[in-house]
Amino acid sequence: MKQGRQGIILEVIDKYDVETQDELSAILKEKGYEVTQATISRDIKELKLVKVQSANGTYKYAASGKEQMGKLDVFKRVFRDTVISVEPAASLVVVRTMTGSANAAAEAIDELELDDVAGTIAGDNTIFVAVREEGMQKRVIDELSKMSSSKR
Question: Which pLDDT value is given to residue 151?
């Protein structure tokens, strides 16, 4: 019950600008969850919800890290829109981008924090992705190819 309720809370704050616990409580009630103010307060604490400024200047609940996710989405879009190819080269993965885009695309790779990636080096239109161990290139290529091909 608690996990279901907390899942609904996350869905609600993602979909709506919820400014108060009373507002959240009313929405949960509409969805069939009878909750007390103490329960809402505990859920907010356990879910690590924070108040962030909404587009209209008011403050709303958001999952912590939401701003980071927005930033990551921007980097992913840059990656998707600028990457030309992703291929293996010895113990590296080489990513080719449109001219001038390699740094932003490398930042997207870094922000993903892939376990198999030790780091990136970017030039103007080429990124060298160092993998942690020999043989990890395929997994990294698969991840990066998924991210770059979502527009194609």
Answer: 42
Q: Strand 126-131 and strand 92-97: pairing?
A: antiparallel
3-state secondary structure 98-148: CCCCHHHHHHHHHHHCCCCEEEEEECCCEEEEEECCCCCHHHHHHHHHHHH
pLDDT, greater one: 149 or 94: 94
Q: Using alpha carbons only, give the angle 60, 63, 67 rounded to the nearest 5 degrees.
A: 85
Domain count, the chain: 2
Task: For strands 117-122 and 83-89, give the pairing.
Answer: unpaired
Q: For the beta carbon of residue 146, count every other beta carbon within 10 angstroms.
A: 11
Same domain, 85 and 100: yes
| Other beta carbons within 10 Å of 9 | 25
Look up the pTM and report it: 0.55
pLDDT 10s digits, 40-86: 999 998 888 888 888 888 899 988 765 555 666 777 788 888 899 99
For position 143, which CATH number holds? 3.30.1360.40
